[in-house]
């Protein structure tokens, strides 16, 4: 796990109509409330995607990145994948290799340093991965 | 007391000592997070490796419905535990006081968040809960719940603290005031390391540190300054070498917070309060020893004190090593051999003078 470099796995990329799904692993050893995710940034083929254009899916739920702070009662279970959906003008087809970089910033809700101040984790992972079909 | 299944008794690791073996499933964090096993599969792997009988969990890692458990989860857990002859040892609670972003939990919320975890622990057959806050008012409020559920509460004593650190002395004072056998510590051996683990040094070498920088890091680590001062000194040194500390991610700081170097003899100062042990380790070398943690010296303290309870193996190499870089199950097996060997040696020298 090494607390950071497993954000992406070999099967992270999912073909989606109008874009690309990127399945993320929690960059920590335990499940965390979605409110613990303080930021997500994504670059595809070297181009950073505007945060407002990202959609974050966990099971049946979909959120914008800036809605995550309010999701303090939704648990991102450590075995579940958070799928970030990226809109792209030319969605890559299945089997194609795509260079993606994802960073996830966490605020660890049980590791308080001072009132309202918590230990953070910044995890960044960049890989060239092949687009798969489903997840 | 609520009705519960009879508690299975674990055999000692070596006859003549009260130390029992087991592991925390946290040792298999990487494999679990990668989705390689479901809980039944994970317990099967542990059992087929001959590891046990104690099994510990970190609730927020193992339970999908954390902090609660479903009846189905309880049934599956109890089935697996019975099938394999495991003994539930410790249930790791967390206190997610920063769960909301607009404010910290109130004290009522801290209590309300912890009670369901105690109930989950009880339902799963655990006799002990690892707790993360020893705030006196919270402890006093939780104690009747622990009594009702027949649980012992153990505050985790982890690096960089030791048994006689100011914060721990305060908790010992609270415990002395309340004077309940249900209060104590989970002793984590990260507090009493003799060296930095080769695993983190390898990780730091991969992030670009050379032999000189690693030597300096270990020199600073071995001094007695507090962690902020030691970390600060190392950061300053990195700047002087033209290295951006950020290039090491969180590892430069973790090197100080996850590795403590208190003398193992200090465990003797709190032995009656030690209710459970996290037998932390990072690696086992070709001689069967833990390069960074002096198991024979630590075990000697526990054997001399006639201590009884679980040494729950906690392989934390996954914090610095990638998935499949090491085999945690094989390492736990080797560490159990080391612990048995250390117990046998300590038992063979019972009359040795404590300070010899």
Walk me through what this model shows.
Chain A has 135 residues and is mostly beta strands. Chain A has one domain (13-130): Sandwich (Immunoglobulin-like). Chain A has strands spanning 13-16, 19-24, 32-33, 37-44, 47-48, 55-58, 61-63, 75-76, 82-87, 97-114, 117-130. In chain A, the strands form 3 sheets. In chain A, strands 1-2-9-6-7 form a 5-stranded antiparallel sheet, with no helix packed on it. Chain A has a 4-stranded antiparallel sheet with strand order 5-4-10-11, with no helix packed on it. In chain A, a hairpin with a 2-residue loop joins strand 1 (13-16) and strand 2. In chain B, helix 6 links the parallel strand 4 (128-131) and strand 5. The N and C termini of chain B lie far apart (47 Å). In chain B, helix 2 runs parallel beside helix 4 and helix 9 packs antiparallel against helix 10 (227-240). At the A-B interface, strand 3, strand 10 and strand 11 of A face helix 1 of B.
Name its key features.
heterodimer, A: 135 residues, mainly beta, Immunoglobulin-like, 5-stranded antiparallel sheet, 4-stranded antiparallel sheet, 0% helix, elongated, B: 356 residues, alpha/beta, TIM Barrel, 8-stranded parallel beta barrel, globular, carbohydrate metabolism (chain A), C-deglycosylation enzyme beta subunit (chain A), lyase activity (chain A), CGDB (chain A), lyase (chain A)
Layout of helices and strands:
The complex is a heterodimer of chains A (135) and B (356).
Chain A: E1 13-16, E2 19-24, E3 32-33, E4 37-44, E5 47-48, E6 55-58, E7 61-63, E8 75-76, E9 82-87, E10 97-114, E11 117-130
Antiparallel strand pairs in A: 1-2, 2-9, 3-8, 4-5, 4-10, 6-7, 6-9, 10-11
Chain B: E1 18-24, H1 29-33, H2 39-48, E2 54-58, H3 59-62, H4 71-84, E3 87-92, H5 107-123, E4 128-131, H6 136-148, E5 152-157, H7 166-178, E6 183-188, H8 198-206, H9 211-221, H10 227-240, H11 251-257, E7 274-281, H12 295-304, E8 308-315, H13 328-348
Parallel strand pairs in B: 1-2, 1-8, 2-3, 3-4, 4-5, 5-6, 6-7, 7-8
Helix pairs in contact in B: 2-4, 5-6, 9-10, 10-11, 12-13
Family (chain A): Belongs to the C-glycoside deglycosidase beta subunit family.
Domain C-glycoside deglycosidase beta subunit (chain A): 19-110
Organism (chain A): Geodermatophilus nigrescens
